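yo

u said u wanted the structure for the complex thing, so here. seqs first:
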Amino acid sequence: MFWKGLFAGTVGTEAPAGVAEHEVLITEWTTPKGERLPIYFSTTREIDVYALEALCDAVGWAKRPLRKVRKALACSFLVGSLWLEKQPQRRLIGFARATSDHAFNATIWDVVIHPEFQGKGLGKALMRQMIRELRQQEISNITLFADPHVVSFYEELGFHADPEGIKGMFWYPS
Amino acid sequence: MFWKGLFAGTVGTEAPAGVAEHEVLITEWTTPKGERLPIYFSTTREIDVYALEALCDAVGWAKRPLRKVRKALACSFLVGSLWLEKQPQRRLIGFARATSDHAFNATIWDVVIHPEFQGKGLGKALMRQMIRELRQQEISNITLFADPHVVSFYEELGFHADPEGIKGMFWYPS
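structre next:
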C-alpha cells in the first residue's frame, strides 16, 4: 500500500471508503474553507468522458467527439488520473494517458491539471506516477511531444528534448 | 483490389498464389540475374520474429529480446511489411509499425528497409502505405521520432519537425 504522501504529510493509516489499496495518496489539499482533503492518483478508476472533457475544456483544449475519446481511453496502455476526495464524492482534477506497444515504447498524451489546482506540484506528481507505472511495466523508452511552454516542466522530470538530434515529427496532408 | 503498381508498371491482373486481395503491389524488382519479381505491402501477414530481427540486424540495430519483440508486434496498432515474392517463397525486405490509441494519435516506429533494397524508393512507398492505412482508420495525428539523417526523408513524405515549436522528448533515469 502506497500509504504515505509523496510531497506532503500522511493522512492516517486507513484509506477512505472507495479508495483502492493500490491507489497512491499524492497530497492533502487545503480548501478555501480550510478543509483538508486527500488527492489520490489512480490507474484503474473509470473515467467519465463528460468529466474528462470538462477538465480539458477548463484548460482551453478543443472539444473532441466523445465516441473517439471513449475509444482512446479503452485503447491507451495507461490511463492515470488525479482525484480530490470529499466523501462520498470525488472530483477528477488531473489526467494523463500513454499509448504503447506494451514492450519497448510509450508515448504520453493529454497531460492536464485543472486550473484551480495548478502551480502546486500536482502536474509533476502525476507525471512521476506515470513514469513509475511505465517503468514497472518494463517500458524503457518513455516519450512525449511537448508544447514550447512546457518543455522546461518536462525537463525537470528527466525528459530531454531532441536527444542525439532526434526530431519529433508530425504528418500533415499536402 | 489495389492491383496497380504505385511507381512501376503492373504485373498482370492475377495475384500470385498466397497474396491476399487487400495486399498492395508496390513495384517489380529486377534481380541481378534479370528476373522480375513483385514486391508487396501487407498489414496482415504474420511476421517471423527471427526474420524481423535479421532485417534489423542487417541495418545495424541492436538485438532485442524476442519475447519483447513478439509482444510489441502483437500490441502495435499497425504492422506494415514489404515482401519480395519468388514463388513459392517470400522474403521480408521492409518493415514499419505504429502504436496508437485507435482514435486520435499514432506513432510510427522501427522503419527499416533491407540494405540490398535501399535507394529505390521502397522506404517512401512503405511509409505512404502506413500513412494511408492510418488515415483510413481516422487517425488524425500521425507522429514519429526521426534520427537526424532521416529528417529530410520524412519531410519529403509530409512530416514536419517541431511544428509550432512542439518538441519530441525522451525520458532518462536520473
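The first helix of chain B runs from residue 49 to 58. Chain B touches chain A through 50 residues (CB under 8 Å).
cya
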